[in-house]
Design a protein that fits this description.
Rossmann fold; 3-stranded antiparallel beta sheet; 16% strand; globular
Length: 373
């Protein structure tokens, strides 16, 4: 069956889309945002299995948790997760081994062990709702149309790239940054989805071991979107405080669980982050997944709105959005009535090949840096 979301969630997402549209001068279809991937790939509700198939809702002592095994490294970590000498991680289906371990350990201990191994996991309802964290980054800037802005999108997967795609709809120049050694993980999946969230962007191949070119690009940026763990960028001198001052620059940081304490190191994907925020369907005794990795598109939508609101204040800010906290905002709504969330299958514009626009981007950066001197 098609993916479903509570009517109150869709209504709130539509109000958010309208607020974004009013500030950005674009029309945003909230149903398309929430259901875009499912429409493209023919995904539907599967109860305690996520629409994309990589995440499971499992019960144990203390409640429910969701674990995502979407990457080869995740599956390879299963033997250590279940402490098994006989399971070698090569089986087609690891879940019959994983689920009894949740029951044996309880959800809190299971989640702690999974996080020590770098696995994406969420305990149902562990994250409270929270507004974006905003802090000063530099000087304010006067009003300027977003069409004149340079947006550097260093994010990957769904939430951050969707935010960049929405900003591209305003006419902004959006540059998607990837490393050839470690490109966006969605390139390994269906091309239709990658193109949907990245079409309309320029493509820039960066060398993160020698990032001089990337530093120049960041120096010229009006908006930066990133979804890395903060310490990873800071070590390379690529964090917000390491860049030359530029009045009005907005740095949007998308995280799974925030940047405080141990949570800064927790990995998250859309389905397990939604569970962490308490955004599920069904009942307390029998929860099931809500929508398709719903924390991802909701965070992308709210991220674009946060950028526009920051520009209205003159920018000069770091804005931090946690996917789990965004989901928790929606979990506070009355979630009783469900609505089938359907969008027509989308025809996405073709995204640029990795690195195919480096010369164009380098020329753009040079002109902007000269103009700002």
């Amino acid at each position: 069956m098609p993916v479903t979301v509570p009517a109150a969630v869709l209504a709130y997402a539509r109000r958010t889309a309208q607020a974004l549209g009013a500030l950005a001068g674009i029309d945003v279809d909230a149903a398309e945002v929430l259901d875009g991937r499912a429409a493209l790939l023919g995904l539907g509700d599967q109860g305690r299995i996520s629409a994309g198939g990589a995440t499971r809702l499992m019960s144990g002592g203390g409640g429910w948790c969701a674990l995502t095994l979407s990457r080869p490294d995740d599956v390879a970590a299963v033997p250590a997760l279940v402490e098994s000498d006989t399971f070698d991680g090569s089986a087609d289906d690891p879940w019959p081994t994983v689920e009894p371990r949740v029951h044996d350990l309880g959800v809190a201990a299971f989640a702690e062990r999974a996080r020590l191994l770098g696995l994406p996991v969420g305990v149902l309802g562990e994250t409270p709702a929270a507004a974006p964290v905003v802090r000063r980054l530099g000087g304010r800037a006067g009003p300027a149309p977003l069409a004149d802005a340079l947006v550097v999108d260093m994010s990957s997967m769904w939430a951050g790239p969707l935010c960049g795609r929405l900003l591209a709809f305003t006419g902004a120049t959006v540059v998607k940054v990837e490393s050839a050694a470690r490109p966006d993980g969605t390139r390994a999946g269906p091309r239709e989805f990658f193109d949907w969230v990245n079409g309309g962007k320029l493509s820039y191949e960066a060398d993160f071991t020698h990032p001089d070119g990337l530093r120049r690009l960041l120096a010229a940026a009006d908006v930066v979107i990133e979804s890395s763990r903060p310490a990873a960028l800071e070590r390379r001198g690529l964090g917000p405080e390491s860049q030359p001052a530029r009045d009005g620059r907005i740095w949007l940081r998308v995280t799974g669980h925030g940047t405080d304490g141990a949570r800064a190191g927790w990995v998250a994907f859309g389905d397990d982050a939604a569970v962490s925020g308490g955004l599920v369907g069904g009942t307390a005794e029998a929860p099931r997944f809500c929508g398709d990795a719903i924390a991802d598109p909701l965070t992308g939508l709210h991220g674009a709105l946060a950028v526009m609101e920051s520009r209205g204040r003159g920018g000069g800010e770091v804005v931090e959005l946690s996917m789990a906290a965004v989901a928790a905002q929606y979990a506070q709504l009355p979630l009783g009535d469900e609505k089938i969330c359907t969008a027509e299958p989308l025809i996405a514009s073709r995204a640029a090949r990795l690195g195919s626009d480096n010369a164009v981007v380098d020329g753009l950066v040079a002109r902007r840096l000269v103009a700002s001197c």
